[in-house]
Amino acid sequence: MDFYAVKFFATSSLTAEVIVGYMFGKQKGTPEYKVLSIPKSKLPKFELPDINLSYIEYKSKLEELYYTAIKDSTVLDLNKQFLAFVQSTIKRYGPEIINAKMFLGVRDSDVAIIKAILSEIFEEWEGEVNLRIVAEKLTYQDLVWLMTQNRSFSEKEKSYLNRVDVLSSPEVLPLSDPLNGMTINNLDVGIRFIHWL
């Protein structure tokens, strides 16, 4: 397991809001996350993403929902406050600590730890929350495969990918970090000569 992805859906009886989002990370570092809070009165206007979708699909649908939802001034105002709250709460607990605990919780399939972490983040905002989660263990190969599944290829690319020599070639993964989005094209590849005296 190289990465974890936790998709969540939370409701509260205290406030009339629904929270959807995800947290994604690797063993060390800080988590990547996206959260969206929608008042229950506004829910009929939006289609919430299914947390059972693959991480890449879920993330894509959540991004679409986010940009559609914040066009509503009520949702926008709520989420400005909510995002500031989530960021300050994560900063207070320590993003590296939260990330490490989430990684271990997913690795060990410990749902209680994952729910406890997310509940602690949301409880000051929402009070006690009813939380549904789906956690995924991901490898570099999984991410590459998931990303290519959502990409449309031109006819020329398809014909190249279906060549016998390409189909039988070993799988090659990028050396760059997919969290930072650096592609292989950003690397300065060349020959370096060392002159010994």
Would you kindly provide a brief summary of this structure?
With 197 residues, the protein is of the alpha+beta class. The chain has helices spanning 55-69, 73-93, 95-107, 111-126, 140-149, 155-161, 164-167, and strands at residues 3-12, 17-26, 32-39, 129-138. 44% of the residues lie in helices and 19% in strands.
Protein topology:
Elements: E1 3-12, E2 17-26, E3 32-39, H1 55-69, H2 73-93, H3 95-107, H4 111-126, E4 129-138, H5 140-149, H6 155-161, H7 164-167
Antiparallel strand pairs: 1-2, 1-4, 2-3
Helix pairs in contact: 3-4
Quickly list its features.
alpha+beta
Structural account:
- It is a single chain.
- Helix content is 44%, strand content 19%.
- It has 197 residues and is of the alpha+beta class.
- Strands 3-2-1-4 form a 4-stranded antiparallel β-sheet, sandwiched between helices.
- Strand 2 (17-26) and strand 3 form a beta hairpin.
- The protein is globular and about 60 Å long.
- The model has no long low-confidence stretch (mean pLDDT 81).
Computed over alpha carbons, the radius of gyration is 20 Å
Tell me the β content. 15-25%
- What's the overall average pLDDT, rounded? 81
Main β-sheet, in a few words? Answer: 4 strands, antiparallel
Overall body shape: globular
For the secondary structure, the number of strands is 4
**What level of helicity do the residues show?**
40-55%
Whole-Å distance between the termini?
46 Å
Uncertain stretches of 5 or more adjacent residues: none
- Helices and strands, in N-to-C order? EEEHHHHEHHH
* Side-by-side strand order of the widest sheet: 3-2-1-4
